Every structure is written in C-alpha cells, then in structure tokens.
Amino acid sequence: MTPENGPKISFEVDRPGLSVAMVILDELKVGPSTSSFEVYEQETFSEIRSQMTLEDAKDDPILRSYRDLYWTFGMDPTKLRVSSEAVLRRILKGLNLWRISDIVDIVNLASAYHKIPIGLIDVSKLKGDLVIRTAFNGELFQRIGNKIIMCRGREIVVADEEKIVCFGYATHESKRTMITPDSSNVLVLLYGAEVVTSAVMEDALKITLDMIDQWLDCRVSEPVIVVS
DSSP readout, 49-86? Predict the structure, then answer.
C-alpha cells in the first residue's frame, strides 16, 4: 500500500514487529517556523520535562526497543541514536532544538513528544520505490552535512532503487533527498519497532498530523501503515 501519489515501501529485513506509517504532504510551502510556533514549542518542552527525566529515558520501553533493534544490526545506539531519542535527550538536557524549517521543526517536536522516529523525504528526488534493508558492505551514504558513511554490510537503512536515503531509523538522512525551501511534495515516515503496537503508532501519527494541521499549509494524504 502507498499514500496517494507516493512511493511504495517494503521490508527486506527480518525482524519482528517493524512497521512504518506513511503520509504525503503535497503543495507544501516550506519556510521558517513562526514565533507563535516557537511559543508552542516551549510549552511542549515544559510538558515533556515535567513527565520524564534523562534517567527515565534510559529505561523507557519504546526507546529501549529501538536501542535493542540497533544492536541486532551491529549499530551502537549510544553513538548512533534513533532520531526520536536524540531530540528527546536534547530537550531533557534543557536545550532548545535547532531552527531548520517549519516542517523539520514540527516533526522534531512531534518525534520527541511521542518518541517515534520520523523521517522526511522530498518525493521529487526519489528514484522509484523504497525498501527497508540491510546495507551492503562498502556501500557509501552521503548524509545531510555532506559527511560520507561507508557501510559495513550490517546496518539497517532505507533505500530507493538507486541509493540509501536514510541511515538507520532516521538517524541520518540523505543530502540527496533532504527537505529544502523548494520541496513541495514531502513523504513523512514514522518508523515503528517491536513494542510500537498499532495503537501506539496510530496515536503517534495523530499527534504528528495534528501538529502539521496546526502549523503547516499543505494537502495531507490519507495515512498508510505498512507492517513487516
């Protein structure tokens, strides 16, 4: 299954309980976050900090499930954090998130709030459909920021028919398919691990879409959830 006008996605990795929720944002106008969003963001930070500490995060079952998943792919989750844990830990340390663009700022906040990692892909830059697979030994990946990663042939990645577009579960996203001010057709991916039940995923998806509806001007496709 696929959202309207979006790529298909499939799993080649053999791990229990993996899932992906997909939604397409069309006619999106990417810009800076507004001052009113930044007020909302600070209020959400306060809510997050009132409910969890850094110590709590170590034993959170959702975050632990992603760490366990990374270990099975030979990835050290203390060095290569799933994106949701990375942004959540930054907030719990009392730091602000980066100012990148309205869409990126929104999904970073949503991901920290519900703890499900979110990836963003400019659909116009994709080559064919997507697959979640194991990287090839020696395969090269250029992340946002231009750093080149040479894969060891064990890591979990998301790839189109040409190259890797995401290293891990939104740990590093590709420079080739990154969101820019010209991006108008964007694929939003929420990545689920073993403890992320359908109810948890649907709740995370609702939170994310509520934020998108409140803070972005775009058309939103019907979401699709794909299970491995």
Answer: HHH--HHHHHH-HHHHHHHHHHHHTT--TTTS--HHHH
Q: 224 forms bridges with which residues in the sheet?
A: 22
Q: How confident is the model at residue 6 (pLDDT cuts 50, 70, 90)?
A: confident
* Among 169, 184, 208, 209, residue whose Cα is nearest residue 30: 184
- Domain positions in the chain are 9-227
Say if CB 192 and CB 116 are below 8 A apart: yes
| Residue at token pair 């894969």 | 151
Work out the burial of residue 220: count CB atoms within 10 Å of its CB; fewer than 13 is exposed, 13-18 middle, 19 or more buried: middle
How does pLDDT run across 71-114, given as a tens digit for each residue? 999 999 999 999 999 999 999 999 999 999 999 999 999 999 99
Could you give the count of Cα atoms lying within 13 Å of 106 in the half-sphere of its Cβ? 26
Kindly state which CATH superfamily the domain 9-227 is placed in: Phenylalanyl-trna Synthetase, Chain B, domain 3 (3.50.40.10)
3-class SS shares of the chain: helix, strand, coil, % to 5: 35, 25, 40
Cα dihedral sign, 152-153-157-162:
positive
pLDDT, position 5 = 66
The widest CA-to-CA distance across the chain, in whole angstroms, is 46
